[in-house]
Design brief:
The chain has a 6-stranded parallel sheet with strand order 3-2-1-4-5-6, with helices on both faces. It has a 6-stranded parallel sheet with strand order 9-8-7-10-11-12, with helices on both faces. About 35% of the residues lie in helices and about 15% in strands. It has 12 helices and 12 strands. The model has no long low-confidence stretch (mean pLDDT about 95). The longest helix is centred in the N-terminal third of the chain and has 15 residues. It folds into 2 domains: about 150 residues, 3-Layer(aba) Sandwich (Rossmann fold); about 180 residues, Glycogen Phosphorylase B (Rossmann fold, 3-Layer(aba) Sandwich). The protein is globular. Helix 7 links the parallel strand 7 and strand 8. Bound molecules: iron/sulfur cluster. The site of iron/sulfur cluster (SF4) has 14 residues, from helix 11.
Length: about 350
């Protein structure tokens, strides 16, 4: 059996949510995945995947040559029974067609839909994890169970060891901590009060700071104000799956509407997500069982962008500036102390 190909060359969060589709397809046969290099790191060790093909859309050889080389590599397999277009560009559709895939399945709203053999309705009212899962299902399928739309990540033994080491060096492997993920690729999605929140939380918790090297400056601002022995600094030094492991060991995480909330969804970590210019109704909210959503409900300019602009087009950035540390702290208390069922 040749199996299925999943094409997902979008943002990291989309790749993590695509693991719902991959898990469903893996029940039927082998699954290969084409993903960006960073996306490929999120899919490492995933037992539902036969092979991950990293594909750099902006690679050194240019888009056309890179695309051709990727197609050649994929054609070393027998033609796939089906290709699933989790990312909807014309280029992805073309790539799937040139692999010889007999069926090409994607969303009816996608740019590349003219190349699909089956178009699936894009449900704006569903979470994106469910939308992606639905690519594997017929139109009359039952709604998914909670487990079917649970994103999956698989940190390795090395990832676990690196977190053991980080925690030991930070003073304790057992003491509970709260994770903060202050970064985002989009400027208006970065809530501006993480330093104040960290100071407040440090009275009760150790604090882990999570992010990439791009977040070093805000991480330094946070760690500078906290007492020694209270900080676990995981910014810029951990692999993606080691970051997931660290998040998985946290009591809870406070994050922007960005990739760390999807890491937390996969690891089941109680989550507070801060939404500024975007809204959870886009389908990218937290999926952990215990979660809370912060957002400025009464602001008429919100949402102003699908991703979040680098700067507020109105200049005031009220969607984030008016979400206070006290408010976020109160949401964190809620997810840490769920009501006891009667
Ligand atoms: S226009 Fe409104 S929603 Fe957009 S960044 Fe500015 S304050 Fe936020």
């Amino acid at each position: 059996m040749s199996g299925a190909l999943v094409v997902q060359t979008s943002f990291l969060g989309d790749v993590i949510l695509t693991t719902t589709l991959i898990a469903e397809l893996a029940k039927r046969g082998p699954v290969d995945v084409l993903a960006t290099p960073i996306g490929a790191t999120a899919l490492a060790n995933n037992p539902d995947i036969r092979t991950v093909f990293p594909y750099d859309k902006r690679g050194t050889y240019g888009a056309a040559l890179g695309l051709w080389n990727t197609i050649k590599e994929l054609r070393t397999r027998r033609p796939y029974d089906a290709a699933y277009l989790a990312q909807g560009s014309f280029r992805s559709g073309l790539l799937a067609m040139l692999t010889g895939a007999k069926e090409r399945i994607g969303f009816a709203s996608s740019t590349g839909r003219v190349l699909y053999t089956r178009q699936v309705r894009y449900r704006p009212d569903h979470h994106h994890a469910e939308r992606l899962w639905s690519l594997a299902m017929s139109d009359c399928a039952d709604p998914p169970t909670r487990d079917q739309i649970r994103p999956r990540l698989y940190p390795s033994d090395d990832d676990r060891r690196s977190i053991d080491l980080l925690l030991r060096r930070s003073g304790s492997t057992d003491e509970p901590f709260v994770a903060l993920a202050p970064g985002s690729a989009w400027g208006t999605k970065r809530w501006p009060y993480y330093v104040t929140l960290a100071t407040r939380l440090a009275e009760d918790f150790r604090i882990a700071v999570i992010g990439s090297s791009a977040d070093s400056e805000i991480a330094a601002q946070i760690t500078d104000v906290l007492p020694a022995g209270c900080v676990i600094n995981g910014v810029g030094t951990l692999s993606l799956l080691a970051s997931a492991e660290l998040i998985g060991r946290a009591q809870a995480i406070v994050t922007n509407d960005s990739a760390p909330q999807h890491l937390a969804s996969a690891m089941g970590t109680p989550t507070v997500t801060i939404f500024g210019p975007t809204v959870p109704e886009f389908g990218f909210g937290p999926l952990a069982e215990r979660k809370a959503i912060a957002g400025h409900e009464s602001l008429s300019c919100r949402p102003c962008d699908r991703h979040g602009p680098q700067r507020c087009p109105l200049g005031h950035w009220r969607c984030m500036r008016e979400l206070t540390p006290e408010y976020i702290s109160s949401l964190l208390t809620e997810v840490l102390n769920p009501p006891v069922p009667v």
